[in-house]
């Protein structure tokens, strides 16, 4: 696993993630032979829980978490919030840095915070970020304007505390921010088709009612979530899913590990970072063995945690070279 481990044998520090722009325009740099391949047959890197880099010790516990956890956060905030935080953060690069690094699937989990304005939409993963959804979507739009031949898949998910009125407000924001960049749902397009139309955004939306009302929204992209602590078990799950046959359109294979209560109790000084980093070589080896394409066992989007600490993004992009030999 060249480049993943330092000379001392330790893994790269998350405080100084590897962040280069070498993949900032990887889609337009693909072999022209691949410009006519539908997006769901390409290999696309994604980030799991994209916005958790915005969490910190001042982040409030989400309203939908258990009453006990919310009570503990009020009574013992200096203990509870840091404990939850270390198991909630999955990314350290900002959304712009992730896009620069080559990520093209963004996992955006949205919640309405009761505190603040009536339309106070933030990102969530147990805790709520201070980052506003509108501001982040605008940041993504501005990045796309500077990279006119790159395409992103935005997965708006979870929607904790969202009413129909808030869904309509969010969809209006999406339309206003991205405008003609949005690709209406239909057959999954190729890059050449998207470039011809000036479209750069496929927006997956996890609320069926909103999707039925707005042609600009795509149904939720399936996410293979293994819910496993050990990488071996996660890979077994992913291989089982592959053996069942791939979905018909875009889909995500998540190589993200997930803690459980037993693991947390046995590792009181642990964190998601400490659990994940030693497993990256094993998970990356699985990634390099995958193949995109239309076959029943082919992969499409592959999403992971802590983007930038290893070669994950480049490894996923490089899988597209296997299509040239088909």
Characteristic key phrases:
single chain; 326 residues; alpha/beta; TIM Barrel; ten-stranded mixed beta sheet; 10 strands; disordered N terminus
What topology emerges from the helices and strands here?
Layout: H1 26-29, E1 44-47, H2 67-75, H3 77-85, H4 95-101, E2 105-112, E3 121-125, E4 127-132, H5 133-146, E5 152-160, H6 164-178, H7 191-197, E6 201-205, H8 208-213, E7 217-218, E8 223-224, H9 231-243, E9 252-254, H10 261-266, H11 272-276, H12 280-288, E10 301-304, H13 312-318
Parallel strand pairs: 1-2, 1-10, 2-5, 5-6, 6-7, 8-9, 9-10
Antiparallel strand pairs: 2-3, 3-4
Helix pairs in contact: 2-3, 5-6
Polypeptide structure, described:
The chain has 326 residues and is an alpha/beta fold. The chain has a single domain (26-325), classed as TIM Barrel, CATH 3.20.20. Helix content is 34%, strand content 15%. Strands 1, 2, 3, 4, 5, 6, 7, 8, 9 and 10 form a ten-stranded mixed sheet that branches. Helix 2 (67-75) crosses helix 3 (77-85). The protein is globular.
Short précis:
GO terms for molecular function: phosphoric diester hydrolase activity. The protein is built from 13 helices and 10 strands.
